[in-house]
Design brief:
336 residues, Helicase, Ruva Protein, domain 3, 2 domains, alpha/beta, Phosphatidylinositol Transfer Protein Sec14p
């Protein structure tokens, strides 16, 4: 870390020493014993501008307090059938760890439908996974590897991406805005696999709109990406959709325990049991009630709004101007 970076962190720390006690308490759940590294994340997200990074972090902490984010891991999505529906339509899971100890999160972008519950449940589920990652998964990895591990890698499966994904852009913009403003710089690299032609076309248009810092994180891999991913992780940590060649990636594998999207996978079993246990500790005398945990969604940044509009425009071109159909998702591209 350079002299300029160290000085910026010192200035940032001095500013944060002055915040109110409720913000200091929730900040402990954010940094998990690594405050300097957390200052570094927010500074990086604001191009090392101390004043802007400080405002971003204070806004984040106020959002956490106002929306009781510290308690979200004690708010289960019940009944189990509803949670299973969320998991079947919001495809995300932890498949393993890289050789450097970074958690590997798999996301089924193309096959996620987000049509089994209200938006609030999907937002609640996403934040719970973020908080479980930051409060349980990353601290555990840090202890195991004897060093601060504060980021993860994500493998995005584009199998099945269709023009109908246009209907999901609003929800995805909400989720990405929450991540950008409240969980910045938590992803080390995004690996795109099983990318159809429609993704390639959109990516060429969206890529120039991204900040250089973000562009450098995205790697579009050939096919299922297995060969490239095996350079950074063992075979056992590969997401299930990277273990097959061709277009055989699927939402469900024959063995649910191997499919990291499934509620039967050990990660989701541990997560769900943890949330249920926390709910009993927090409110032992009250039965668990069905109902989503509403979270105020921040306004998207100008960059995010522009990207969402550009993606929507490109999808519309495919649907209208070029006469291309959903069959395009059978075509694959090589990484740039």
């Amino acid at each position: 870390m350079g002299i300029v970076s160290q000085e910026a962190i010192k200035q940032f720390q001095a500013l944060m020493d002055q915040v109110d006690e409720p913000l200091k308490r929730t900040f402990q759940n954010v940094h998990q014993g690594y405050p300097l590294e957390t200052f570094g994340r927010f500074l990086k997200a604001r191009e090392w501008n101390v004043a802007k990074a400080h405002k971003m972090l204070v806004d984040c902490l106020n959002w956490r307090v106002q929306n009781e984010i510290d308690n979200i891991l004690a708010k289960p999505i019940v009944p189990t059938e509803l949670y299973r529906s969320v998991r079947d339509s919001q495809l995300i899971g932890l498949s393993g760890y890289s050789r450097e100890g970074l958690p590997v999160f798999a996301i089924g972008v193309g096959l996620s439908t987000f049509d089994k519950a209200s938006v609030h449940y999907y937002v609640q589920s996403h934040i719970q996974i973020n908080e479980y990652r930051d409060r349980i998964i990353l601290p555990s990895a840090s202890r195991k590897y004897g060093k601060p591990i504060i980021t993860c890698v994500k493998v995005l499966d584009m199998t099945g991406l269709k023009l109908s994904a246009l209907s999901q852009i609003k929800l995805l913009t909400i989720i990405s805005t929450i991540d950008d403003l409240n969980y910045p710089e938590k992803t080390n690299t995004y690996y795109i696999v099983n990318a159809p032609y429609i993704f390639s076309a959109c990516w060429k248009v969206v890529k120039p709109l991204l900040q250089e810092r973000t562009r450098k994180k995205v790697q579009v891999l050939s096919g299922c990406g297995k060969d490239e991913l095996l350079k950074i992780m063992d075979y056992g940590s590969l997401p299930h959709f990277c273990k097959r060649e061709g277009s055989g990636s699927s939402r469900h594998s024959q063995n649910g325990a191997e499919n990291c999207f499934s509620l039967d996978h050990h990660f989701h079993q541990q997560l769900y049991n943890y949330i249920k246990q926390q709910s009993l500790i927090k409110e032992p005398v009250h039965p668990m009630k069905q109902g989503s945990f509403h979270v105020d969604v921040p306004e998207p940044a100008a960059e995010g709004t522009q990207i969402a509009k550009t993606i929507e425009s490109e999808f519309n071109k495919f649907g209208n101007g070029n006469g291309l159909s959903d069959s395009l998702d059978d075509l694959k591209i090589n990484g740039d």
